[in-house]
Specification:
The complex is a heterodimer of chains A (478) and B (231). The model of chain A has no long low-confidence stretch (mean pLDDT 84). Chain A is an alpha+beta fold. In chain A, strand 10 and strand 11 form a beta hairpin. Chain A has eleven helices and eleven strands. Chain B is α/β, with parallel strands linked by helices and 231 residues long. In chain B, the strands form three sheets. Chain B has a five-stranded parallel β-sheet with strand order 2-1-3-4-5, with helices on both faces. In chain B, strands 6-7-8-9 form a four-stranded antiparallel β-sheet, covered by helices on one side. Chain B has a three-stranded antiparallel β-sheet with strand order 10-12-11. In chain B, helix 2 runs parallel beside helix 3, helix 3 runs parallel beside helix 4 and helix 6 packs across helix 8. The longest helix of chain B has 19 residues. The model of chain B has no long low-confidence stretch (mean pLDDT 88). Classes of the chains: A alpha+beta (478), B alpha/beta (231).
């Protein structure tokens, strides 16, 4: 557009000359010189320095040619006219320079303001973003808006695993084969974090674009550092929590493990002391106590293992088609010493549909529910185990006991790790059993809950049947 | 078999070795012990025992490996010892030739019962082999394809008989799901545990006096099944 601006400058001078021409007989040359400064000043201010100079020179010539005697010649006769001309030229040029400088600093200020706005928007957009992928996306779009490259690629190395995140625009188009026109490193506090590469349609970037890109690279480095810190912090928090869990576990477990050990040690030392002739019955009692407590210890250790597996996320069920009644039968054999003070009523038909479960894990669920029931319900009371298909997709299993009712807030929380309804001293237990049940049942895609019943407490759990995967053998005749 | 059956115990825990040696010696067994897999293999080759008790977690070799290497040259009964969280290894050991397993901690009565069954079974296979197996009121004639209960013939389908014959043919021994399915239905059915579940249910209904509390065809939790014959 410089041509248009030049033309406008010429038009302005010509128009001024035309307007002033009729006034020539009435005003003296000094006043004309002053009046000619008007178009020069206006053109410089409005159209820039180049057109301003053109206007100044043209005005100088027109003034000399038309208004300074002798008219229609560039010659000058009187000394005061020479002074007027020289002063005009000097004032015109100086004005031009001054206006031009102001204009430039205005433009610069506007540009800086724009840059500042962009950077502000970018840092606002990056605020709170800790995902490197998201950071790369945001930044690449911002760079696209500012520099308008034909293509751009952003690579960020992500700590600590050295993973590289890439973002390219236009998306899903491979970047051009040639070297990028510009490539700007992203320098973090701990070395090079990546680079921004641009392929520009024209030549290289303008200095302001270059400056902006540098600032953007700085923002990216900051955002990445921030993301790394946030991750480190959340890892530290997780560690702290698992540490707290571990110490809770340790204090609970050491108490739990010592109790049966104390019984075993006491019984064994009494039997081997030799100073007492134990009655057969007393002897039998001591031996029973030892066996019972050894089984109890074994059960505890099993729960501890399951619990740590649950925590590590490695308790994945190894499903196979099982008969629920067989699982229940196996657990009743295993738990016979624990359950010998309770009456058991089992209603689990052999003819229930096959369930796709991990035998050992579901057996552990029953073992924990039964051990819990035996612990909290008075001896001599009944424990019921029931199962029925509630639809083609689900089996409902209930373990009911005659323990005292629980408060509503306890019902919701008894499946939490280490949650104990009674104080730790009154009834033994690690507070792990039910949380393991929940973990296992949920790993099988089922749900478990507890509710009060007029006569006691009911644990109910569902097991999905997923009958789609079941192929039954063809029928045969004998 | 000599008067005193010779048992080789391979286990790396000295306490277990001490306890098992003391108890088995008191029960009139001759006991040799090894704390490492290679040592156990050497001892077994030098002086073939009547039975081997093998722990699955050994310092030098995997117990399953020991089992497989023993089976390359001997059919001596092997009882595997394991802890509860190595179910997979237990099944693997059984599939590689072990005869039975015990989960630690175990009661000594249980160990003695397993030893008796394994020794009897090995004595039978050394001899001519029985074609008639009895368990309570049940009598199975493997050669004649005949099953009677209290003298009354029980009608079985071909697959039911094949399954029963497979279990009864190695009575007392634990059979893994995988092994039973492969033997009865074929290798392509090795993972179809549901077939086994269905047929075991049918068999129990026909053979057990109380199918809900089976005494002849018992379940080994998570492992397989066992046929309990009269001793």
């Amino acid at each position: 557009m410089p041509v248009v601006r030049m033309a406008l400058a010429i038009v302005a001078v010509a128009a001024s000359s035309a307007l002033l021409f009729p006034l020539r007989p009435y005003i003296d040359t000094a006043a004309v010189a002053l009046l000619y400064l008007l178009p020069v000043g206006l053109v410089t201010a409005g159209l820039g320095q180049g057109p301003g100079i053109v206007a100044a020179v043209l005005s100088f010539l027109a003034f000399n040619y038309v208004f300074v005697p002798p008219y229609y010649s560039l010659r000058v006769l009187h000394a005061d006219n020479v002074v007027a001309l020289v002063v005009f030229l000097v004032v015109a040029v100086v004005t031009n320079q001054l206006v031009g400088r102001t204009r430039r600093s205005l433009e610069l200020a506007t540009e800086r303001e724009r840059e500042a706005t962009w950077l502000y928007e970018l840092s606002a957009a990056l605020m709170g973003v800790t995902d490197p992928e998201a950071i790369a996306q945001i930044v690449s779009h911002q760079v696209q808006t500012i520099c308008q490259p034909t293509s751009l690629e952003l690579q960020l190395r992500v700590d600590p695993d050295g993973r590289v995140v890439r973002a390219a625009l236009p998306a899903r188009v491979a970047p051009p084969a040639g070297r990028p026109s510009v490539s700007i490193p992203v320098q973090g506090t701990r070395g090079l974090l990546g680079e921004i590469a641009l392929w520009m349609p024209g030549g290289p970037l303008s200095s302001s674009q270059g400056r902006l890109l540098g600032a953007i690279a700085g923002q990216v480095a900051l955002a990445l550092d921030r993301a790394r810190l946030a991750q480190a912090e959340s890892r530290a928090r997780v560690l702290e929590q698992s540490d707290a869990l571990k110490s809770a576990l340790l204090s609970s477990v050491s108490h739990e493990l010592r109790t049966p050990l104390a019984t075993i040690k006491a019984s064994v030392t009494s039997l081997s002391a030799g100073d007492v002739d134990w009655e057969t019955d007393a002897r039998r009692d001591l031996l029973d106590a030892i066996e019972e407590e050894a089984d109890h210890l074994n059960h505890l250790v099993g729960n501890l293992l399951d619990s740590s597996r649950l925590e590590a996320g490695s308790l994945t069920p190894e499903r196979s088609w099982n008969v629920l009644a067989e699982i229940v039968r196996a657990v009743l054999v295993r738990m016979r010493t624990t359950l010998r003070n309770h009456r058991l009523e089992v209603d689990v038909s052999e003819d229930l549909p096959l369930v796709p479960v991990d035998f050992i894990q579901i057996e552990q669920v029953f073992a924990n529910l039964l051990s819990n029931s035996a612990k909290y319900s008075p001896s001599g009371t009944t424990i019921w185990i029931r199962a029925r298909a509630t639809g083609p997709q689900e089996l409902l299993v209930e373990v009911e006991n005659q323990s005292p009712p629980l408060r509503d807030e306890d019902l919701g929380r008894i499946f939490d790790k280490f949650y104990r309804v009674t104080s730790a001293d009154t009834v033994t237990g690690t507070g792990l059993g039910l949380s393991i049940c929940k973990g296992i049942v949920e790993a099988h895609g089922g749900r478990i809950r507890a509710h009060n019943h007029p006569a006691g407490l009911v644990f109910s759990l569902t097991l999905p049947l997923l009958s789609g995967g079941l192929t039954l053998p063809p029928e045969e005749v004998a | 078999m000599s008067q005193q059956p010779h048992v080789l115990v391979i286990d790396d825990e000295p306490q277990i070795l001490r306890a098992v040696r003391t108890i088995l010696t008191a029960k009139q067994f001759r006991v040799t012990t090894a704390a490492r897999g290679e040592e156990g293999l050497t001892l077994a080759a030098a002086h073939v025992p009547d039975l081997i008790i093998l722990d699955l977690t050994l310092p030098d070799l995997d117990g399953i490996e020991v089992c497989a290497r023993l089976r390359e040259w001997t059919q001596v009964p092997i009882i595997v010892l394991s802890v509860r969280d190595t179910e997979k290894d237990k099944v693997a050991a059984l599939d590689r030739g072990a005869d039975d397993y015990l989960t630690k901690p175990f009661g000594i009565e249980e160990l003695l019962a397993r030893i008796r069954v394994a020794l009897r079974h090995s004595a039978q296979t050394k001899g001519t082999g029985q074609s008639v197996v009895r368990s309570g009121a049940l009598e199975i004639d493997l050669a004649e394809f005949r099953v009677t209960r209290n003298g009354v013939e029980v009608k079985l389908t071909a697959t039911e008989f094949k399954l029963l014959a497979h279990l009864a043919g190695h009575a007392g021994r634990v059979h893994t799901h995988h092994a039973i399915l492969t033997a009865v239905w074929g290798p392509e059915y090795a993972e179809h545990v549901e077939y086994l579940r269905v047929y075991m249910r049918q068999l129990r209904k026909k053979l057990e006096s109380d199918p809900d509390h089976p005494e002849i065809l018992t379940t080994e939790p998570g492992i397989g099944y066992r046929f309990i014959a009269d001793s």
